[in-house]
Amino acid sequence: MFGGFPVYSVLVLFLLSISNNSVHSERVVCGFSITFRERSAEYGFEVADIPISLCTHVVYDGMELDMFASYHPYGNDTIEKDWKSLAELKHTKPELKLLGSIHSPLLMQVAAEKESRETLTENMLKYMERYQLDGIDLYFGDERFGPHEEFYMLIEELKSRFTAAGHSTWEVNVEIEIIRETIDHARLCRLADFVHVVGMVERKPIYNEYSSTPMAKATFDINELKNITLERALQYWIDNSCPADKMALGVLFIAQPFTIANGLKNGEEPEELMTLCSVMKERPICSYVELCQIFKETEWKMGWDDMEGLAPHAIQGDRWIAYENEASVGRKGEIARSKNLAGVFAISLGMDDYRNKCGTLYPLTKALIRSFESPTLESDTTP
């Protein structure tokens, strides 16, 4: 967790369970969170802002659990209004798939008890039928190892109950870090319809012997493999029984600002910069809709943390920002295409320029989709 907001690198793998008779099709998954509604009037994100013409799937992070696994599907008027509005999107685009997401730290406690799993399953069934949902995301986090046996059981029981109720096409998805240890990749792929594999912690700037300016680690450590690239990280999952055509690559559009006033010369930790951006309400993170305006209004020195074009940063005086631009997300889309993955996932719409403040509406989302659909990246390296 980073400032109350889960910060990961730009990676999310989706492992899609496809029947032997299905036809491969490209997936463009778009995510947004209920917290985006809480922004100021100008930046408040509504269901009506979702560019459904770009998305094949929409994931809404608006589900919570309590200690007794009693899911409260109708207890929040705002959430209920959102789900009704989401269901209405299907009138415009009937083929659109709507997914709910549970990011509760209590999920592992629920999974540990058979009775709690049964309660959750029945509540989810009622909720999803009410709002015409097509799937659910389960977040596995805050633990170094896993998943545990009970979590696999939860996935299997949800899928089995949905099928018994006549909803065999409903997806049961899992979100998990790409660097997670002790994963049974084959089992996870077999049980889940999607597995969102999120990689990397926050990109903190440090000085190293190869650069005169601070840079952040932009590679991955997975079990015995150290400092591997995105392509190798994807291949690791493929080599461990997760077929490429069951994966989709997600990109997190988050920007992480730090202050390097202490110089970082003696091993000091950079400090999170709380004052650069205001849209995220006192969190040390920035959304691109605000960051692109900051870059336009003042002069920044742009650079990269890697040689692959995946991890851009910006420096102004003692301020340092790790962020995503059109080129970096486009490069990730190219890699997804080169690995023959099933699709891409924009995380999330509310972190993009959804107000067209800098010349293009949803520039990061469009760059990701464009690069995945074409072997040639068309965007440039400007922020």
From TrEMBL:
GO terms, molecular function: chitin binding; chitinase activity
Keywords: Signal
InterPro entries, sorted: Chitinase_II/V-like_cat (IPR011583), Chitinase_insertion_sf (IPR029070), GH (IPR017853), Glyco_hydro18_cat (IPR001223), Glycosyl_Hydrlase_18 (IPR050314)
Coiled coil start-end: none
Gene3D superfamilies xref list: 3.10.50.10, Glycosidases
Keyword Signal: yes
GO cellular component terms attached to this protein's record: extracellular region
Signal peptide, first to last residue: 1-25
Entry-linked SUPFAM superfamilies: (Trans)glycosidases (SSF51445)
Gene Ontology BP terms: carbohydrate metabolic process; chitin catabolic process
Name this protein carries in UniProt: Glyco_18 domain-containing protein
Protein source organism: Anopheles funestus
Residue ranges occupied by any GH18 domain in the UniProt entry: 26-375
Matching SMART domains: Glyco_18
